[in-house]
Structures are given as structure tokens and as C-alpha cells.
Model the fold of this input.
Amino acid sequence: MDKFYFAAKIQQEYADTIRKKAITLGVSQKNIKFNPKGCNFLEIGVYIKFEDKDAYEKFKSLELPGIVETW
Done:
């Protein structure tokens, strides 16, 4: 089974919103990680592993708030 990954630098205030959107698409909480390393003040990196390509594509097509940069 393929894995699909989303990685981005986001504004910290939107971390919970982005996490909730991923969870509503069936992503397990254990597959969502946040890390402030390498980010500016009030920014954080988010890493999400998707097990399902459709969920990954739906997530990418959402209008996600607070995205500073995708990796």
C-alpha cells in the first residue's frame, strides 16, 4: 500500500484547524506531527501521513488557512 505525505510550514494558530481537517478525512492522530524546528516565531511544521490517496487528494484540495510554505 502506498503512503502519501503532506508537509508544510504553517502559522501556529491554525495547527488545530489543520489537524481536525485531516482527522475528518480518516487520518489517525498518530500520523499527524508538528515540529517547530527550522520555523520562524509563531510558525510550526506539520507532517501528515495519509494511507489513502483519495483522502490525500481531498486534503490537498481544501482551502487550508495559515499555510506559509509547502515542502
